[in-house]
Design goal:
Layout: H1 2-7, H2 12-38, H3 53-60, H4 71-88, H5 98-106, H6 113-124
Amino acid sequence: MYIVLKDEIVEPYEAWVTLALFPVLIIMALIADKLSSSAEKIDPAATLPVMNTLEFIEVLKNEQPEDQMAPAELQRKSTLKTFLKTEMGTDNINEVNLAQLKEKVEGNVPVKKGEYRKAFGSQLQGKKKFND
């Protein structure tokens, strides 16, 4: 770019070099995107139906026989039991710590705006670390 700015004329070889390197730039960007997306961990809670912890527990404590359940409800209960087994090590809802279950299903409690600002200001001043 310095050469172009120096004489203020784009020579044909400069244009060809730019055109030749453009696909290289695109390919490098695609490779970087694929590598960064493959490193992301998939959150198991993202595959759950949208519900809060209370609904989660009610579905699993439903004592209705499986042959009387609607297919969608049976699939939902099966999905929740699988999630419970993978995340908590059991498919029995009575053996689960409800606080941990709430954190897994609903995620972490969001930080209040004032707390976030105070912690961020402290981090900028080097006082303490803030984990979001």
